[in-house]
Amino acid sequence: MIVMKFGGTSIGSSDQIKKTVNIIKSKLSEDPIIVLSAVGGVTDLLLKSFSLAINKGVIDYSEVKEKHLLILKDLKLPLNLLDNEFLDFEKNLDILKNIKKDNLEILDNLLSFGEKCSVKILSSYLTLFGIKSRYYYSYDLGMLTNSNFGSAEILSETYELLEKSISLLNKNYLSVITGYIGQNKEGKITTLGRGGSDYSASIIAAAINAKRIEIWTDVDGVMTTNPKIVKNAKKISEISFEEASELATFGGKILHPKTILPAINKNIPVCVLNSFNPEYKGTIVTKNNNKKELTAISYKQNVSLIKIKSTRMLYAHGFLMRLFKVFDDNNISIDLISTSEVSVSLTFNDFNNLNEVISKISEFGKVDLFENKSIISIIGQKLKYESGFVSKITGILAKEQVNIDMISYGASEINICFVVDDADLEKAVLVLHKELFEI
Questions:
Q1: Residue 140 to residues 26, 41, 71, 163, 181, Cα–Cα distance (Å)
Q2: Do 202 and 345 fall within a single domain?
Q3: I need a labelling partner for 166 at 20 to 30 A (CA). Which of 101, 186, 338, 393 fits?
């Protein structure tokens, strides 16, 4: 069995859905399970309807409805196919209109509408096309999560529940399953965060011991950097799980960071493929990559850098624990950290409760906040073997008058990160790619 996940652009129009069905047809001999995102652009439209309901007391989902009805019409599917979904969506908007405040629980329920509609459309069209199909909501098959609405984590029993449920499905029908969504133990719908459909596919693949995962998107696999910045960015044919994980964590947008974890545990290859260019072999992510080369340059924008200085930190037991507790109490993840005997520098890009965080840290240290920063990450096995690489990077950037605020190296043998101004990001990425990948 294989798991094929199709992103929003792969099902973003009736024409693209037809192409996706042809891709699926070519893989039927491998007994695929299909995992879907919402139709391209729908999640943003759902958020727009959510905002209108709570901020203006207006119920308006006309754009969402029109987008789906156009696809139904073009595919010659019944125009009333999604009537129940539209009705349920309107009921949730009405609840929001009356309470007039953010409610992540209701928001997750609203956002699930996108995936519920996409699986129904694709499954119906597959059947019309001559491929017998049934659609399923992932939580009905065992996608069980905690109650962290908006970015839920799966529970350990999910794998066993999914394996049992999927093994009992009728093999005469192609299964089409929602990505992105789950359900807590109280039966309330949760979401796995933006990009979580990749995670869903990986969880399902791990549960059924799939031969591989195919992530179908709108690019020809993983690139050496963002081609929107560097026109000479190169395609990567193969990378390791470790490299892909670092790439995703520090801004690579092809794979959701969590996607890699279930695959690593089961040693399942992940193939990144282009539904607009299905003949191209894309990028394969495997357990090991022994090539002593650089793999990619990734980056994360809109990062904040905090520097904490405290003479009390000198030889002080528990200082770091106290510092990390402030971030933990406010559910903020730290990207990079660097320490000396009397100071700590760290970065993050989650700005919830930022003023409270600074206030708490100020109780035991002097805090300096620097905003509008970017993390640039250079990834590859070559870093294990080449001495003097840090000085090489600083030399390249110094020639371009790019100031480095912080360097993090050593936590991972295959990744070096440094922090620069957002304004210098593109210049830095361009020159680094030229010097490291094009010469």
A1: 28, 25, 26, 12, 11
A2: no
A3: 186
Query: Between 411 and 302, whose confidence is greater?
Result: 302
pTM of the predicted model over 0.90:
no
Coarse DSSP helix, strand, coil percentages of the chain, rounded to the nearest 5 percent: 45, 25, 35
In whole angstroms, give the CA distance from residue 72 to residue 390.
Answer: 55
The token duo for 161 is: 């529940």
Sign of CA dihedral 179, 180, 181, 185: positive
On the question of pLDDT at 433 being above 70, the answer is: yes
Q: What's the total number of domains in the chain?
A: 2
Q: Answer whether residue 253 shows pLDDT above 80.
A: no
CB of 112 within 8 A of CB of 187? no
Chain segment 82-135, per-residue pLDDT in tens: 999 999 999 999 988 888 777 899 999 999 999 999 999 999 999 999 999 999
Q: Which of 171, 201, 218 is the last residue of a domain?
A: 218
pLDDT above 90 coverage of the chain, percent: 71
Interatomic CA distance for residues 421 and 399, integer angstroms:
16
Residue 418 domain-assigned?
A: yes
For 43-75, write each residue's pLDDT tens digit: 999 999 999 999 899 999 999 999 999 999 999
Domain membership of residue 143 as a residue range: 2-218
CB-count exposure of residue 321 (10 Å: 0-12, 13-18, 19+): exposed
In-domain check, residue 201: yes
Same domain for 200 and 303, yes or no, is no
Residue 119 burial (CB < 10 Å; 0-12/13-18/19+)?
buried
| Token pair for 394 | 């600083």
Q: Which of 218, 238, 272 is the last residue of a domain?
A: 218
Give 312's DSSP letter: G
Percent of the chain with pLDDT over 70: 97
- Domain for residue 253, yes or no? no
Q: How far apart are CA 333 and CA 257, in angstroms?
A: 14
Confidence band for 411, pLDDT divided at 50, 70 and 90: confident
Backbone phi, psi, residue 378, to 5°: -105, 125
Same domain, 335 and 205: no
CATH code, domain carrying 383? 3.30.2130.10
137 touches 178 (CB < 8 A): yes
Do the Cβ atoms of 75 and 128 come closer than 8 Å?
Answer: yes
Residue 260 falls within a domain, yes or no? no
Report the pLDDT value the prediction gives residue 385, as an integer from 0 to 100: 83
The one-letter amino acid at 350: D
Secondary structure letter of residue 311 according to DSSP: G
CATH at 22: 3.40.1160.10
DSSP 103: -
